[in-house]
Design a protein that fits this description.
This protein has helices spanning about 1-60, 65-75, 80-90, 130-140, 185-190, 260-300, 320-325, 335-340, 345-365; strands spanning about 95-105, 110, 145-150, 155-165, 175-185, 200-205, 215-220, 230-235, 240-245, 305-310, 315, 370-375, 385-390, 400-405. The protein has about 400 residues and is of the alpha+beta class. It has a five-stranded antiparallel β-sheet with strand order 2-1-5-4-3, sandwiched between helices. The chain is rod-shaped and about 140 Å long. The relative contact order is 0.09.
């Protein structure tokens, strides 16, 4: 009995631990799913912004690619002719500040003049924040994107530079100068959706002068690069930018309805616990009762047979074995018992018929039934007259019955 109680409390402990573990696993799954969904939402919002920024940037960069040919044809082009050509390029380009040309790195051609007067005749060699990108363009003979940087005329701009090389009369190549266009950084950001008040993500960009993750932060909060956020690479002509994003205000570690969900999980776990507890408690009581019953019939002076619903004999007490001589090995089933106890076939059939009617009444009637008188032949050939009755075990499970002789 003590062993049964120990098993009961051990099972309760195991169930409690398993339910607590299940709650932790479920909670972690909910948090992980929320984090994945949040990351997916941020990625889905960042992608169109990054694509728009890339498209607008390259649209502005490509504008001046035809200007070097203009100077190759006429290196001494007049300001008026330059303005005429640049005006056509400039039409409808609201993100551009100016288009300039700098023979020998000195800005001589400017369009439009209005608002860019301070740029005229500026020598790039006197601009510490621009000479680096100028030298890269000259050295690589390729288009270089500089900035964002502070402009001579004020404000922040991105400068697209194309080096212009020509051939002298002898066919030797020489450096003529630079053709550049300045993109208004703020207007570029606005056109790309970065300044949209409805944007539900915080965005930051680094990689000034195309230096990627090693470059300076030029847009947004630098702290975003100190955290694990959604990142994307924007390729620029001479390098890359790194753009990162997170939900506006930071990552929400918990879903909005997490506490309600946790309450549901706890209630479900408690209900399951009480159902299992009640079942185990009932089973323990039945088991204890059955053990007590068995302990009583083991030493009872009355012969007892225990059988299950499959008509298999599960127990014979000592009195039965001493009285009739049969063991479970001799009579494992009721059929085997009848064959030995009632060797006469006609009498055996009579007992079987009477017993079957008795069992039917036992199962359907609530009244106390009178036992059946039978003649039982022992293993040693002696005939015993006994009163045979049936009772359901104390646990009321219906899985085991007792024959009393």
């Amino acid at each position: 009995m003590a062993n049964t109680k120990f098993k009961f409390y051990t099972l309760i402990f195991i169930i409690t631990v398993m339910l607590l573990a299940a709650l932790v696993v479920a909670d972690n799954y909910i948090l992980a799913k929320h984090a994945t969904q949040s990351e997916s939402q941020v990625h889905n919002q960042l992608t169109p912004v990054a694509n728009a920024l890339t498209f607008n940037l390259y649209t502005n960069i490509q504008i001046i690619k035809g200007l070097p040919a203009l100077f190759s044809i006429n290196p001494t082009l007049s300001q008026k002719d330059y303005a005429t050509a640049a005006a056509k390029i400039f039409e409808g380009q609201t993100q551009l500040i100016n288009i300039v040309a700098a023979p020998d790195l000195i800005i001589k051609y400017v369009y439009p003049i209005q608002g860019n007067e301070a740029v005229k005749n500026v020598d790039y060699r006197t601009l510490p924040n621009q000479i680096g990108s100028v030298n890269r363009a000259v050295a690589t003979k390729k288009l270089v994107l500089a900035g964002p940087l502070t402009l001579v005329q004020g404000g922040q701009g991105l400068v697209s530079r194309i080096p212009v090389y020509m051939n002298d009369p002898d066919g030797h190549e020489f450096f003529w100068g630079l053709v550049s266009t300045v993109i208004d950084a703020n207007r570029l950001y606005q056109a790309s959706g970065l300044s949209d008040a409805a944007l539900s993500i915080d965005v930051a960009i680094r990689g000034r002068d195309g230096l990627g993750e090693k470059g300076e932060v030029f847009f947004g909060n630098p702290d975003l690069f100190e955290q694990k956020n959604i990142a994307s690479i924007i390729t620029v002509p001479n390098g890359s930018w790194l753009i990162v994003a997170r939900p506006k205000g930071g990552w929400e570690k918990l879903p909005d309805d997490i506490w309600l969900t946790r309450l549901y999980l706890v209630v479900a776990a408690l209900l399951l616990f009480f159902i299992l507890f009640s079942f185990l408690k009932t089973s323990m009581k039945a088991s204890l009762a059955n053990l007590k019953f068995r302990s009583l019939i083991v030493t009872s002076p009355i012969p007892y047979i225990l059988l299950n619903t499959k008509q298999q004999i599960t127990f014979l007490n000592d009195t039965f074995i001493k009285t009739f001589g049969y063991t479970i090995k001799d009579i494992p089933t009721i059929a085997a018992w009848r064959a030995k106890a009632y060797p006469d076939q006609q009498y055996r059939e009579h007992v079987a018929y009477s017993w079957n009617r008795y069992v039917e009444e036992f199962q359907t009637s609530a009244d106390m039934l009178s036992p059946i008188e039978v003649n039982i032949q022992s293993k040693y050939g002696k005939t015993h007259t006994a009163l045979k009755s049936l009772s359901e075990n104390i646990d009321n499970s219906g899985s085991e019955y007792t024959i009393v002789l």
